[in-house]
Amino acid sequence: EDRTPRFATHQIGVSGMVYREETKEILVVKDKNSQFSYWKFPGGLSDLEEDIADTAEREILEETGINSEFLSILAFRQQHQQPGAFGRSDIFVVCRLKPLTFDIMHCENEISHCKWMSLEELHANTTDISPITHRMCQIMLHGIKHGFDNVDIRFKEMKSVYKGLKYKLYHRPLP
Amino acid sequence: EDRTPRFATHQIGVSGMVYREETKEILVVKDKNSQFSYWKFPGGLSDLEEDIADTAEREILEETGINSEFLSILAFRQQHQQPGAFGRSDIFVVCRLKPLTFDIMHCENEISHCKWMSLEELHANTTDISPITHRMCQIMLHGIKHGFDNVDIRFKEMKSVYKGLKYKLYHRPLP
């Protein structure tokens, strides 16, 4: 049996639900270069050694011009045979963020449309969103109604057993 | 700017907390070839295209001889500069499983010790476990006391927008 460790098997993608409490709106984009014309949440692939939360904030800023603050992870997906991933698999993480600025300046190269849209309207859309976006709207609406403690996956920073290394452990909030 | 997609950046490791309700014991092992002599939960790296749940069940069986059934994800960790990962990063997922068999037959190549240990005893251990194991005991004990709905991250299988592909979306249980 071959006991050699395998090389990296996954890329990590991150997208962000940036929710504006006062107006009940959420930040959505349409990709310029996608075969689909769905409204979706801004996001993209993690750089090597970049934390999930940092990817979310960076991609949101690059794509929409909005500064935001990471709050929690709401969901993640494991997808094998991910198109464009060179035969590797994909972990796609959906985060919840708070907007720090509100004026959109979207990236002309990657994004064709970008706006603040009513969360209820996005949730009710049956043609222009993918199943995962619909599901994420459900989760967000549940959190708004019953408290985000019911939907959030939060992190605790911990010290690794390997000297000098730290990591983030994501799990349900403990009392 | 280089717009070429990056190659896979992460390996996925999975370990399993196999909890035996009737005796309040949990399945623990000691690695034969580790620099640490910690009690830990059985687990290992995902094969290419292997789902998290399947890795947990396979590694538990290989290392301990115990058949088990995946129930939920309790936590995951993102670690950069993971030793032995060729400069890539590591996502390490901790699952909760139900034992289907109870007689241990541990792997002589990889495992030096394997046993059912009282969960309370493992939680109280201050020398022979790593910080993440201690934290995971806390989370498991919280679930036992207040209901696993408070700690579980569960999945829903969904259809991809890419024809023929399915994926698992992990998030908090919705009512």
Can you offer a commentary on this structure?
Chain A is of the alpha+beta class. Chain A has three helices and eight strands; from the N terminus they run E-E-E-H-E-E-E-H-H-E-E. Chain A has helices at 52-64, 119-124, 131-146, and strands at 10-20, 25-31, 43-45, 68-79, 89-99, 111-118, 154-159, 166-171. In chain A, the strands form two sheets. In chain A, strands 1, 2, 3, 4, 5 and 6 form a six-stranded mixed sheet that branches. Chain A has a two-stranded antiparallel sheet with strand order 7-8. The termini of chain A are far apart. The model of chain A has no long low-confidence stretch (mean pLDDT 92). The interface between A and B is large, with 59 and 59 residues.
- Percentage of residues in helical conformation of chain A: 10-25%
Mean pLDDT of chain A comes to: 92
Q: Could you tell me the number of beta strands of chain A?
A: 8
Low-confidence stretches of chain A: none
Secondary-structure-based class of chain A equals: alpha+beta
Largest interface: A-B, 59 and 59 residues
Estimated radius of gyration of chain A: 17 Å
Separation of the first and last Cα atoms of chain A: 45 Å
Q: Tell me, what's the shape of chain A?
A: globular
What oligomeric state do the depicted chains represent?
homodimer
Main sheet overview of chain A: 6 strands, mixed
Order of helices and strands of chain A: EEEHEEEHHEE
What is the number of helices of chain A?
Answer: 3
The fraction of residues assigned to DSSP E strands of chain A is 35-45%
